[in-house]
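Lab notebook: predicted structure, single chain.

Context: the supervisor wants predicted structures on file for every construct in the current expression panel, including those that have not yet been purified. This is the next one on the list. No modifications to the sequence; it matches the entry in the shared construct table.
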Amino acid sequence: MAFLLVEELAIVFFCIGKYSDEPSPADEWFEQGKIVKAHPVGGTGDKAKDPIFGLAMGGGSQTSSDLFRWFCVDSGSADNHPIVLIHGFPSQAYSYRKVLPILSKKYHAIAFDWLGFGFSDKPQPRYGFDYTLDGTCIQNPGRKSLIFVLTKKLNLVTLKMDSVCSNYCMPCMVAEYTTSLESIIDETTKGKATLVVQGYFSPVVVKYASSRQEKITDLILLNPPLTAKHANLPSTLSIFSNFLLGEIFSQDPLRASDKALTSCGPYVIKEDVAMVYRRPYLTSGSAGFALNAISRAMKKELKPYIEEMRRILMDENWQVNTTIIWGERDRWLSYNGVEEFCIESKHRLIRLPMAGHHVQEDSGEEVAQLIAQVVGR
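Prediction complete. Output recorded below exactly as produced.
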């Protein structure tokens, strides 16, 4: 009996995905962007291995050796005020394709793929980006763990002794994602910027903004998880965190991309659009393994993840102009409690009755106009 590597399964399942030799929508989107190198690669430099079979993964699943490669699309003059568009989980910078051209008329609009998504590097846990603390958690089962931090100057320093830390704990993941976010923002912007973020990555951006308030003019949150009722991942996403089953389902492009988009709102995905979102899961298994790792982290610690964001946004020391744009047809996050939070925190709330969780997909042009109004007021 012949066996295939997990990273090859998606290609086998969807080998008919390329319809012709003409440039695909994914190729055309890639041509609009560029690769930006930012944030140091941690780890030992070993080649990433398939987490199921332990075999070395292909070249497309390996990261660079020094700095991570981020896929970025920017539009508009670099001399104008920068607006950084940050996609949600799971999604891509492609979700802002309708927003970019409108904002570029007056602003420098920048969208990037998070590490683990789209055309950016997709490091495997323990191979450069652990989805844990800022450096590496070196574990001794049943004993104490030495937790290290890799600083900006690439100095490895001991932070503390702690009990054995899960490779997928959310407080650690938020810290690592926060430092990588700082790296890519510093690399792509100069001066003050406006940050726009959608969905489950909102707490990461709020965490970053809390210590960089002097660099941010406006923060715009698109359907962020805000209440206690938002503390559980929807089944569409939590399935990716399951042992073994999660590894299998995260390699299925239809589950990882199509269903994740269509199950959370009224959006009806077109085939040419679907092929762009499927592309990472068709080319290697690294996208699925990253999705599996992030899902485990979010499922385990989503509650404190949300609570910390609420504390920051309601703190009297929070000085950033904050606007929440809410698609009311979100099937993942209930609107109940959102208005009350905005009233109590004194943050502006804008409701979009016809949009779902991924508001930039459902109402991209309208979202772009609203962002321009917020920044220009």
